[in-house]
Amino acid sequence: MEAGTLDFESTVFDKEYVTFAGRREAIVRGGRHLFERLPAAFEGVRQLGVIGWGSQGPAQAQNLRDSLGDAVKVVVGLRSGSSSLDAARAAGFTEEDGTLGEMYEVIAASDMVLLLISDAAQAEHYRKIFDNLRPGTTLGLSHGFLLGHLLDIGERFPEEVDVIAVCPKGMGPSVRALYEQGATVNGAGINASFAVEQDVTGRALERALGWSVALGAPFTFQTTLGSEYLSDLCGERAILLAGVHGIVESLYRRYRDHGLDAKQAFRHSVESVTGPISKTISKSGLIGVYEKLDDQEKEIFATAYSAAYPVGLELTAEIYDEVSAGNEIRSVILAGWRSDRFPMGKIDQADMWRVGETVRADRAVDSDAPLDPFTAGVFCGVMMAQVDILLEQGHPYSEIANESVIEAVDSLNPYMHARGVAYMVDNCSTTARLGARKWAPNFDYRLTQQSYPAVDDKAVDPAPFEAFEGHLIHEVLRVCSEMRPSVDIFVE
């Protein structure tokens, strides 16, 4: 289905149209005042099983339990002997009251199953999972990875079940933290996309929208499951994780080479991106960063942007091709098979990350990170490159804005600012961690070898920046900002 033809009709929730740079897309606005409609959305669902306790599992299980109350029983399903059992019990899910049970038993007993185990585990166990789904039930996903895997091996979802997706545009702790803020600020939450892949019950759409509203999404936009996994996997391997990681490592070394001490180099690279640059984009868009600079800084921004954009475009195009060809999905599955022998190590041992610990500790007396124009140009150039690749591939504007910009500046980067980029990467999903390890060095290398020498040799082609000020993404982000929650993400 082409992105421009996406539309839906709900009898439970109010649909409205939003125009993004001339393209009309349908959305549902969230808010706690809609919780009274959830029993109608979940009609026919007596038990909702949340399978897994990774990044999304705890947040979604608790949000759904709190939103649905007595209307639907929310039960967590985990493997026998799972190391997460105690954490689930601590969150109030227990065997005694029937809200915590063995994974396959919960799947078999549930009318709606949210499969939130790791991507590699889904690929390994999908046959047994499908065998335990009763005909007429609903299978929910928060990522399209499993669809990509099934397409790669020539298999399909069971024909007798609904298949839907609700995909929050932020990590699980953000989904929970902003939901809790929604108790006092109605509409606080993490945006989400939804998709209906199969509808055999006639209730798939309402259940998907109800799921998103119950999670606390401020607004829910439509996509397809295929479009979601392509943009999601591409995004986390580009600007959301790997890209920003490679950018700041390359900039830190550049600033050290140009004479800054370690703390100042960290502040002008990492702190600048995760602090003032991200905060400005969050409220005022990419164009807001440029408009905040003086004339001399604008020239520096334009040069850095034009130098970084071609590298970002080439790498993001390569990533998108690798995802769409199934290579990235296969690499995740293969890494899962190797994980017992070769567990992933930490990525926080380099000098710059140890310096970062000191810089973050010093914020009490020195909290103002600089909005470095060169850093801003590089970051915005790579971010815009991802926007343009997703535009070329026909993704919905709302999806492009969320996967390329909003998720970065409103969810992931604030965590990086509080805890560190390396910490953020190492506490994402296994799929994201693998992608960051694979692609961050590519961004680092190509910026260092191609972009920065072009700047130093005054050999930068200004064409990329010439397209910047009139880019349609600025209008898309302006519209999105009007639907932004009034609170910033809370990081514990």
Automatic annotation (TrEMBL):
Pfam families: KARI_C (PF01450), KARI_N (PF07991). Residues 224-366 form the KARI C-terminal knotted domain. PANTHER family: KETOL-ACID REDUCTOISOMERASE, MITOCHONDRIAL. One of its GO terms (molecular function) is metal ion binding. Keywords: Amino-acid biosynthesis, Branched-chain amino acid biosynthesis, Isomerase, Magnesium, Metal-binding, Oxidoreductase. The keyword RNA-binding does not apply. It comes from the Bacteria. Gene3D superfamilies: N-(1-d-carboxylethyl)-l-norvaline Dehydrogenase, domain 2, NAD(P)-binding Rossmann-like Domain. Belongs to the ketol-acid reductoisomerase family. Residues 28-223 form the KARI N-terminal Rossmann domain. One of its GO terms (biological process) is isoleucine biosynthetic process. Pathway: Amino-acid biosynthesis; L-isoleucine biosynthesis; L-isoleucine from 2-oxobutanoate: step 2/4; Amino-acid biosynthesis; L-valine biosynthesis; L-valine from pyruvate: step 2/4. Mg(2+) 2 binds at residue 232. Mg(2+) 1 binds at residues 232, 236. This is Acetohydroxy-acid isomeroreductase. Its cofactor is Mg(2+).
